[in-house]
Design a protein that fits this description.
Blueprint lengths: L1 H13 L12 E5 L7 H8 L5 E7 L4 E6 L2 H11 L3 E2 L2 E2 L1 E4 L23 H11 L6
Antiparallel strand pairs: 1-3, 1-6, 2-3, 4-5
Length: 135
């Protein structure tokens, strides 16, 4: 419908998307993670943006995936966390290229990474400044 297309174009424009970027979806790709990032770290960080269904950090490669329950939550996460500086790196976030394998990540309780060495607190401040997670 025309209104949905208009909203999608507004989201794409707000995120600086190009035609070659994947369209908004509940799945996001995160790279330039701190070397010590784990599944628990990703869950703790991104649950501040919405309902996280699954996460998967790739040890040693410094990237991972997060799946939210809605596209709106993922849009908010991209806006809130992309460009966030932590542990000597700058986190990069975009929508994942496809949904193959979606939901296979770890969805258990967060923990095991402490407070992320201040990263989660910094992300919380960034997210709060944007008005918090979408309803």
């Amino acid at each position: 419908d025309a209104l949905a297309l208009l909203n999608l174009e507004a989201v794409q424009g707000a995120l600086g998307r190009t035609e070659s970027d994947p369209p908004p979806s509940p799945n996001i790709y995160v790279w330039q993670l701190p070397a010590e990032a784990t599944d628990d770290f990703l869950k703790e960080l991104f649950q501040q943006c919405g309902n996280v269904l699954s996460v998967k950090a790739v040890p040693g490669k410094r990237y991972g995936f997060v799946r939210f329950s809605t596209t709106e939550e993922a849009v908010f996460a991209v806006q809130a966390v992309n460009g966030l500086a932590c542990h000597g790196t700058t986190l990069k976030v975009k929508f994942a290229d496809n949904t193959k394998g979606a939901g296979k990540g770890k969805a258990g309780p967060a923990g095991g990474f402490g407070d992320g060495g201040g990263l989660v607190a910094a992300a919380a401040a960034s997210i709060a400044a944007m008005g918090g997670a979408p309803p």
